Structure formats: structure tokens, C-alpha cells
Amino acid sequence: MKSLYNREFAEKYDKIDFKHFEKIRDLFLKHNFSRGNILDIGCGTGKLKLILGKNFHYTGIDSSEFMLEFAKTRYDTIIEDNFENLLQKIESKSFDFLFSLSSLVFFPETEEYLSELKRISKICVVVSFDDFNEIFINKFPKKVYNHTKIKIENTIEDQYFYDYDSILTNEKISTRLIIF
Questions:
Q1: To the nearest 5 percent, what fractions of the chain are helix, strand and coil?
Q2: How far apart are the C-alpha atoms of 67 and 74, rounded to whole Å?
Q3: Which of 27, 66, 79, 88 has the fewest beta carbons under 10 Å from its own?
Q4: Mean pLDDT within 157-179
């Protein structure tokens, strides 16, 4: 993935108008989630902190050194690694909030990862699944999976909406955002 999320992509990333960040901010206000520690898996540039603010302690995990160059200026703690290597090593209930925004698209199966995310989270898990069409899947330079139809029990929020225009394929992408 290092070649896909290169320096050029990292420099453009914050300019993408992701609607899910606005939805997350609004949902955190709605549920009065205003403080705590966050584990952001696939944190990218650390843009989440620009949305939720400074009342949280942020830990970001990403495998792209270029994305992490930006995240290091925003997040309190940075881990450069693939999250599937780390999840089982993290203590249960060690983070208040756990985010995995569009980071499960590279995995054919997600149930085990979702269970691990829930185990690690004290309050809730926030995940998003991009609804890729066949054109996007065929154009994308790496194998991706559409998990928007996955069933998740005991959700706090479950929303589906247009999210962004892909800078890699120019496709319009809708997203399913779930808090559980």
C-alpha cells in the first residue's frame, strides 16, 4: 500500500471533501461524546483531529509513511504499521473511541476485525464502508471490497450517504457510516 498512498496522494488528501467527517462531528455532538482517547486505524493525515478538536487524545495507526508525515503534526501518538499486526496486542477496553474510516476495504472478511475493534473500545466504534461500484473496483490499482451490506448488531447510528469524489478514479463514492 505504500506505493498507492504516496507523497502526492498524501498532499491531496486533506483537500478531499469527505462528508463523513461532518457527519461524525454532528453525531459526536448529538451523543455528547466530547472527551476521551481515540484510536484511529488507517488515520491517514490525522484529519479527524481537525474535525473533533483538541479535547481528545489521538493515537493514529497507518502503514503509509507519507500520510503519517502529516498525522505526526496533529496526533499525540503515531504508529507506522499495518493494523492487523497490532490489534490482538492491544488491551481490551483501552481506548474510549475507535475509528476505522474506509480502512477495511482491503480485507475480504471484516467480522473478525470488527470484533477486535469492539473489544478494544470502551464507549463505541466508528466505522465507514465505501460503496464501490464495479467501475471503481476495476479502475482501482489495488484489490478492494465493498462491505456496505454487512450486518452489525447493536448499532447506535447507521447512515448511508454520498460522501466524496475519488481522486484516484474520479468516481462518486457513497458511504455507510456506523457507530456501534
A1: 30, 30, 40
A2: 12
A3: 88
A4: 92
User: What is the predicted pLDDT for the residue at 171?
Assistant: 85
Residue 1 has pLDDT above 50, yes or no: no
H helix count then E strand count, the chain = 7, 7
Task: Find the helix or strand (DSSP H, E) in which 58 lies.
Answer: strand 56-62
**pLDDT for position 138:** 87
Sequence length of the chain is 180
- Residue 6 near residue 70, CB atoms below 8 Å: no
At 144, which amino acid appears?
Answer: V
Bridge-based pairing state of the strands 172-179 and 121-131: antiparallel
Name the nearest CA neighbour of 84 among 48, 41, 123, 49: 41
Q: How many CB atoms lie within 10 A of CB 177?
A: 20
Instruction: Using the structure block, give the residue that is written with the C-alpha cell 508525515.
Output: 69
The closest of 16, 84, 3, 24 to 45, measured between CA atoms, is: 16
Q: Which residues pair with 40 in a beta bridge?
A: 60, 99
